[in-house]
Design goal:
It contains 15 helices and 20 strands. With 511 residues, it is of the alpha/beta class. It folds into 2 domains: 191 residues, Leucine Aminopeptidase, subunit E, domain 1; 311 residues, Aminopeptidase, CATH 3.40.630.10.
Length: 511
């Protein structure tokens, strides 16, 4: 199989005009009246080429745009890439992350082996240099990612490696940038790892194969351990929600439990965080079968579970000072003579009974067992992540994930993590009025409500299985996939969830 592009990121102290590189990236705001000091000096050596490009209107600095100016022998760079940053007043940390992603995406398309980033210079002192270094590293991995491991013959000639350096002429600034780069590289690699597993099809990744990937991940870190429960062990524990969903497939379900234990002692005030991720390795809908159109994308219904793998990889790589339990219920939802059926009543791990009204509402059936397992593990905070409902995509489109929960402080913490990571969320309700719609006449609960507010009623269903624990739910349906390539990314899995929840864990550990 073809390996994904290897990315290496470092910092280097060098004069911008003398930096020998294939591509030097500089940022430009759309409302900037004049060039910044670095761009102005380079423009002088390029005989005014940058100013001419701007005056002609070929580059206006809008976010997501870029333009190339070719070197003339008076500077070390073969090309300068001007990257649009949009309006200065609208700048966020994600502006620089997107600019780095845009640059890396262009570099891979251009087959450039090396790129040098000076994007931070345009922001002045608006953000901490280490924080900007982290954002640039994350963006570089994100934008350079390509999923083509099963393309056996390709004429695109894309390179197998991309060397990235963040440069500055001031060595004190380079040192500060480098601190953030190392963290950003760990997170970027973890997200790329997750995107690859997410993109792999169901004939390559089934519940057992996903469990094997989790074990392999744990072997790479002393701080990680992995336990896998097979179908017999699930039956012994009476995890009938997971078993029901997986009953129609010859690929039997698994419950994967990863534990991250920091090398240093963690204080009693630092909560143990349970991360629960839905991993339906393929979702046909079961007996309530989905339409054929776009069913191939249902390989991505494992995105939440794989995101948890990526987050655990990042936590171990960063050496975070917080205890984390990653819980991944994995099943394949297929129709057969042994499938669970509409009308069935399932007694879940918690003891609560659920009337099945639609076998395509399967995510909540596996999550309810996993959530109760997190409760039994005495996790202080429980966060689940899942491609749970099409209703969430109807409500929010593909730009933001739905965020629901039972603790206002936790919701605000996750909103801050979303702002820091650039993975956007939007708070939605999941209170008692929605829970009432999930009551069954012949069991404790039913697994689907009416056609209105489906994301909210699904979250309200999950809420019944966490007891008094602090809990939040991320419905990432819609954000998990780039249906077509953008200026920041190739098409395919987005790896959504890795950055936002790693950012949250970093804030927990910082306390």
């Amino acid at each position: 199989m073809r390996e994904i592009i290897e990315v290496e990121v470092r910092a280097r102290t060098v004069d911008f005009g003398k930096c020998e590189t294939e591509l030097l990236a500089l940022g430009q705001f759309s409302d900037a009246k004049i060039l910044d000091k670095v761009s102005a000096e380079l423009d002088r050596k390029l005989d005014g080429a940058i100013e001419r490009l701007i005056k002609l209107g070929d580059f206006k600095g809008k976010e997501g745009t870029s333009a190339i100016v070719y070197g003339n022998g008076n500077i070390g760079a073969k090309r300068i890439l001007l990257v649009g940053l949009g309006e200065r007043k609208k700048t966020t940390l994600d502006t620089i992350r997107k600019a780095a992603a845009n640059t890396a995406n262009k570099a891979v398309s251009m087959k450039a082996e090396t790129i040098s980033l000076g994007l931070h210079r345009a922001f002045g002192g608006r953000f901490d240099l280490g924080t900007m270094g982290q954002a640039m590293a994350e963006g570089t991995y994100f934008g350079s990612y390509r999923y083509d491991e099963y393309v056996t013959k390709s004429e695109d000639g894309r390179l197998g490696r991309l060397g990235v350096e963040v440069i500055d002429s001031d060595s004190s600034k380079t040192r500060k940038l480098n601190k953030g780069l190392s963290s950003g590289a760990v997170i970027g690699k973890a997200q790329s790892y997750a995107r690859t597993l997410m993109n792999r099809p169901a004939n390559v990744i089934n519940p057992a194969k996903l469990a094997a990937a989790a074990k392999e991940l744990a072997r790479g870190f002393k701080s990680l351990s992995c336990t896998v429960f097979d179908e017999k062990q699930l039956a012994a524990k009476r995890m009938n929600g997971i078993l029901a969903v997986g009953s129609g497939s010859q690929n039997k379900p698994r419950l994967i439990v990863l534990r991250y234990t920091p090398a240093s002692r963690v204080g009693p005030h630092v909560p143990t965080v349970g991360l629960v991720g839905k991993a339906i390795t393929f979702d046909s809908g079961g007996i309530s079968i989905k339409p054929a159109e776009n069913m191939d994308q249902m390989k991505l219904d494992k995105t939440g579970g794989v995101a948890v793998l990526g987050i655990m990889k990042a936590a171990a790589g960063l050496g975070l000072g917080a205890r984390v339990v990653g819980i991944i219920p994995a099943a394949e939802n297929l129709p057969s003579g042994t499938s669970y059926r509409p009308g069935d009543i399932i007694t879940t791990f918690s003891g609560k009974t659920v009337e099945v009204q639609n076998t395509d509402a399967e995510g909540r059936m596996i999550l309810c067992d996993a959530l109760h397992y997190a409760v039994k593990e005495n996790c202080d905070v429980i966060i689940d992540i899942a491609t749970l409902t099409g209703a969430c995509k109807v409500a929010l489109g593909s730009h933001k994930a739905g965020l629901m929960g039972n603790d206002k402080r936790l919701i605000k913490q996750l909103q801050r993590a979303a702002d820091d990571s650039g993975e956007k969320v939007w708070p939605m309700p999941s209170g008692d009025e929605y829970a009432k719609e999930m009551k069954s006449k012949i069991a404790d609960l039913k697994n689907i409500g009416n056609k209105w507010g489906g994301a909210c009623t699904a979250a309200a269903f999950l809420r019944q299985f966490v007891g008094e624990k602090k809990w939040a739910h991320l419905d990432i349906a819609g954000t998990e996939l780039f249906e077509r390539a953008t200026e920041y990314s190739a098409e395919g899995s987005s790896g959504f969830g890795v950055r936002v929840l790693t950012s949250y864990l970093m804030s927990v550990a910082a306390k």
